[in-house]
Amino acid sequence: MNSRWLRAARPYGIAAASLAAAMLVSALVGAADLNPLATVSTLLDRIPFVRLPGSLSPLDRAVLFEIRLPRIVLCALVGGLLSIAGAGYQGVFRNPLVDSGMLGASAGAGLGATLAIVYLGGAGPAAVPVAAFAGSVGGVTIAYLTGAAGGRGTATLLLAGVAVGMFLTALQTYVLQRSAQDLQAVYSWLLGSLSGATWQQCAEILPYSAVSIAVILLHGRHLDVLSVGDEEARALGMHPGRTRLIVVAACALAAASAVAVSGLIGFVGIIVPHVIRRLAGTSYRLVLPLSLLAGAGFLVLADTLARTVLSPAELPIGVVTALIGSPVFVWILRTTRAVRT
Amino acid sequence: MNAIMVHDVAVDLDRTTILREVSCAVASGSWLALLGPNGSGKTTLLRAIAGLIPYRGTVTLGPAADAGSLRARQRARLIAYVPQAPTLPPDMRVTDYVLLGRTPHLSYLAGPGRADRDAAARAADLLDVARFGARRLDTLSGGERQRVVLARALAQEPRILLLDEPTSALDIGHQQNVLDLVDSLRRTTGVTVVTTLHDLTTAGQYAHELVLLNQGRVEAAGAAAAVLTEDRIARVYAARVTVSTDAAGNTIVTPVRTTPG
């Protein structure tokens, strides 16, 4: 009994340890050279009832607590949100190619952010997260209403999402073409970045993140049942339409929270859940929590590269996730097939 | 007592009437076979009884009153439904798939507990699939797949088992194996069985009562010898057959080929 529990807990232990390691590496790497031992003891000192001599200088402490840590925590949140939202959508649509930006979410966020940058002038930067969040949720809502009206199949819903996405992207391009001076600002937002992350941003998306993550995690078993198809799920006493609505709403909220603070970061929501399936199994009761942890670790590492490779300049994080993520993804696809079948 | 009472049921799908004025009853613990040519409404009647499509008329399940008033989860605890081509998620393990049968017994946020795992394990044992519980569904043979699907249905601990063409993908030996299994489950657990079947002779051998559907109506109902007559089969199926009775009293339907030229 005990060993069975240990075996079940092992993947979570590995994923959590990897995330902790990624966060620690990220905290140590950067323009300012922080002494590793001093940094670790300073961090441990923050744990209640642990007393260690924190030997970082006041300046280094400021770098650690006001610059690096908020960025790392925000990265972990965004990576976890994008991955779990991608995994949730894949379960709802029984389609492994669905990503967190589908269903008009990314296009809606892009339109929202563009409108804020172009029309709100000085107030723009502050309004961008709110506008992106609203655009993302709005995009999914329109896609869902359109798709649900056309029939109840999941393919209809996905196609409605594609149509709504193209429409919103066209609107965004139109707005942008009329104000070419904002091109730079809009494109740098679209490519995604977590530079200048603050504790306040973390706090702002935390409530939405917590709610959406909790709702998605609670529906892992339901997504497993959905994998036998709507009719058989109904014969098992489920309400597939209701489950789909709840999970889509939670995934949309998760993705919108991430997009609001990071811009558009593609790819994470597809590759992380797939790697998890390859390594740990396909039940959503495993895939959802492990995607959350692994997605967080993956984005922390990607962001560490984004801010160090061309230091002091920064690469857009979306470029890093694609440049590193694609080859790693292909490698995992090619090497794990033999093991799993 | 009757496990299922179907009274004056009609079904329209896409504005086409599929079933009309269908009435029949299934005695508790017995086996009823639904027969009829392609498109006669067999599957539609099964799906109506399972509550998967809207219908007019009444379906009564045992003492539980009108099935239409049951919630989906309550209904799924009474009825297990296995479609002709069940969807088997390729990556899923046999054990996890059988455990899905416990879904109607779980409250919304609960996961399967020890009692559910035990029920699923009993079902897997009864159908002899426990020994390959760790295999992926896409590695199973046709006969193994059908047994795994039946194990999932049995894990529901239903009082009624609805099987749509349970033998359609199997060779004659596996067909008999599956039908024998279903019959022994019926005897040991007292579950009521309703199947659609294409093979008329087989249907007569296993089912207590046959209901022959034709163009959405009940053409004939009763024991095999009464339902399966040469004239009726010729008319309903547009088929040429001879009907005979073997030494054991089984009704045998034999196709006849007209000599060409």
How would you describe this structure to a colleague?
The complex is a heterodimer of chains A (341) and B (261). Chain A contains 14 helices and no strands. Chain A is an all-alpha fold. Chain A has one domain: Orthogonal Bundle (ABC transporter involved in vitamin B12 uptake, BtuC). The model of chain A has no long low-confidence stretch (mean pLDDT 86). Chain B is of the alpha/beta class and 261 residues long. Chain B has nine helices and eleven strands. Chain B has a six-stranded mixed β-sheet, sandwiched between helices. The mean pLDDT of chain B is 91. Chains A and B meet through helix 9 and helix 10 of A and helix 2 and strand 5 of B.
Count of domains of chain A: 1
Strand order of the largest sheet of chain B: 5-6-7-3-8-9
How many H/I helices of chain A?
14
The tally of domains of chain B stands at 1
Count every beta strand of chain A, where a strand is a DSSP E run of 2 or more residues: 0
At the first level of CATH, the class of chain B is: Alpha Beta
Biggest pleated-sheet summary of chain A = none
Topology:
The complex is a heterodimer of chains A (341) and B (261).
Chain A: H1 2-28, H2 36-45, H3 58-93, H4 105-119, H5 124-149, H6 154-177, H7 183-190, H8 199-218, H9 220-226, H10 230-235, H11 240-262, H12 268-280, H13 284-308, H14 317-340
Helix pairs in contact in A: 1-3, 1-13, 3-8, 3-11, 3-12, 3-13, 4-5, 4-6, 4-7, 5-6, 5-11, 8-11, 9-13, 12-13, 12-14, 13-14
Chain B: E1 2-13, E2 16-27, E3 31-35, H1 42-49, E4 56-61, H2 72-78, E5 79-82, H3 94-99, H4 114-126, H5 142-155, E6 160-164, H6 172-189, E7 192-196, H7 200-206, E8 209-214, E9 217-222, H8 224-227, H9 230-237, E10 241-245, E11 251-255
Parallel strand pairs in B: 3-7, 3-8, 5-6, 6-7
Antiparallel strand pairs in B: 1-2, 1-4, 8-9, 10-11
